[in-house]
Amino acid sequence: AKAKRAREVVRAPVRDEERRFRERERETETEIMSAGPTCTMSVDRQGVATIVLTNAPVNALHPDVLAALQRLLEECHGRSDVKCVVITGSGKNFCAGFDIAQFAAQSPDKVKESVSGASEILTRVLEEGSKPTVAAIQGVALGGGCEVAAACNARVATPDAKIGLPELQLGIIPGFGGTQRLPRLVGLQTGLELILTSKSVKGSKAHSLGLVDEVAQTPQQLLAVAKAVALDLASGKRKRVRTLEREDRLEPKDIAKMILGIAKEQTKKRAPNVMHPLLCIDAIEAGILKGGKAGLAAETAAFNQAAQLPAHKALVNIFFAARGTKKVKGVSDGTKLSVPKRKLQTVAVIGGGLMGSGIATASLQAGMSVVLKEINQKFLDAGIQRIHKNLESRVKKGRLSEDKFKQMMSRVKGVLTYSKQDFQRVDIVIEAVIEVVGLKQQIFKDLEEVCRPDCVLSTNTSTIDITVIAEKMRNPERIIGAHFFSPAHVMPLLEIVRSNLTPPDITRDLLRYGSMIKKTPVVVGNCTGFAVNRVFFPYTMAAMLLADAGVDAFRIDKIVQKVFGMPMGPFRLSDLVGGDIGQHVGANFIQSFPERTYGNANGPLVQMNQKKWLGEKTGRGFYRYDKGEKKRTKMVKDLEAIGPVFQESRRAAQQLGVPHLQGVSDRDIVEMIFFPVVNEACRVLAEGVVEKSKDMDIATVMSMGFPAYRGGLVHWADSECGASYIASRLQTFASMFPQQSGFFVPCEYLLHCAYKGVPLSQGQSFYVSPIAKL
């Protein structure tokens, strides 16, 4: 009977939709007139007030929106002609949460005041007011938007609405009651999972979890269904529920304590260097054990504490850095370009190896067609099979339907020659063959003959100067770098490499392509290694130098991963990349920057490459890799095998004057590994290889896995170290290694910042390099 009545609640408003639309044309409206963020309200003849959150494009909760919401709700509760209230969002979204720009624009105390005040408002006038409230959700209801909806007495959503609490990604916790209400709606176990993983769920899934009460099948039906639910709450046909008072979905307290204890232990292991997830669990626990109101007070206190932590500022920096990469001076900053935007419908990928097949996969997922070029049928078949496998894995995970999978594969065409029939229809070419200069030069000479003049010609080289690759072209200015990181269909960063010849329209359209395939594109200048690989070449070299100085390599890996927070240490990374590739790339940097690199002619990589110990791909490198159960690889420290390699390397290093170090602390290891990396980043900033320091921050996070909670390389250097300290320590290291001092000597940019007391992120404003790369 209940199910029947529920269906009738949904069907009746759908039948009456046309009639209600005519009634809305006669509604009397109350509006808060403002050019900025606000709310509007209208009241229909049935007594339903509809409050619309209005702050384009995603209705973020600016303080003015919250103030308007409070004012209108209080008006509703005082009006005799209002029976109930529906809250919705302007346009296609409900609300994307608290206006994150406020974290940068306001002082921490002002933010705390806004958040704590909003939590009280949502409880008093949205959840406990005299008139029942219903949230009508389409598009996104994230963060504060989800919390507004949870504070309402009921929720109606479209099937594809996106609902969740992603606050932990910004180094804070839900502050508008989310830690208390979400577990009461979906249960503690599910609530913890959604909050701690920052996962969002679609409206249909939210309904099955209990987060949403009704589903409106289309956006056109949403308001009608929400109003019908609101009227039923007002009339008593449907029981009014105050979420903060609910306990029916919560586990018994003894089980809840066990769940919370497990969550804390797992969180400590998964995120050992950050506090805010644990603060979040503490707030949830307070509500479970002491009640919703006590939980709200604990949540506010935990929010305020989290907002003061370094991780919050760091993660906000990454948030804005990721959104600022697409704005490039003279290209995509509003500058009008004479060349119209190209149609980007078909991409040709030259080379079907791991990188090329990954690029092709990303392009197919963006709806593009792909021409895959290889040198023989065997390689071509292997490349197409890799694409097939990449997409098939998404099908198995439920992220891609079988029909869409078949459609994507139908848009792949494999070719063995540069025929004009195939390449004349191509809009963009990405070359992804091995790093051999002569081969790449010939490829672009051939491409120039068969592609249209407006086709974008790009290379995926990771280190080679793009002007060298273009030397055999008639129009070398056409070439641009499109440096992906492996696996290309997974890793989020795309380095766009332009030379001083690259026209702005080509850069603009490669930026557009990056956005199409859902990458974060960063425009960088042309030099050896470009931005990321150049900045991080000292990372592995410093580790090798420390190992040659007697520091345990496995300890270095442990400190870098467990203490600092990198996904893996430099020796494990070398095994993953491959020792042969590492030695080849390292040689490029030694050739380009001989005065500040470290090389050992009989170092570990040289010896292991001679033994064909190339890392994980051959089963042995710095670690041994054993086949485990279910095809999983087990990593083993094989001291008996690798020990003699390090001993021989240290003997050779003594001949180079490398000292034997003793008493090296964990902090010494972190600084000796990362301060040379910061030093190289300063050179990159000085030369204008990147336009702004935030580009360097987001690039290091998205490519090398630099801990996001440290804010990126430059942000970490500024916020946790300081230019003066880094310069001083580098000078100390240089004196410790007199024969290798060039590896550590601080550059001019760093010394300028240290002398003037200016953050490294602001050094570009006063330091002018004689060389500009961007």
Main attributes of the structure:
seven-stranded mixed sheet, globular, alpha/beta, 33 helices, 51% helix, 774 residues
What does this entry look like structurally?
An 8-stranded mixed sheet has the order 13-12-11-14-15-16-17-18, with helices on both faces. A 7-stranded mixed sheet has the order 1-2-3-4-5-7-10, with helices on both faces. The chain has a 3-stranded mixed sheet with strand order 6-8-9. The longest helix is centred in the C-terminal third of the chain and has 21 residues, at 666-686. The model is unreliable at 1-15 and 17-34 (pLDDT under 50). It is globular, with a radius of gyration of 29 Å. It is 51% helix and 12% strand. It is an alpha/beta fold and 774 residues long. The relative contact order is 0.06. The protein starts with a helix and ends in an 18-residue tail after the last helix. Helix 21 links the parallel strand 17 and strand 18 (520-525). The chain has 33 helices and 20 strands.
* Overall pLDDT score: 92
Low-confidence stretches: 1-15, 17-34
Strand order of the largest sheet: 13-12-11-14-15-16-17-18
- Identify the overall geometry: globular
For the biggest sheet, the summary is: 8 strands, mixed
- Number of DSSP strand runs: 20
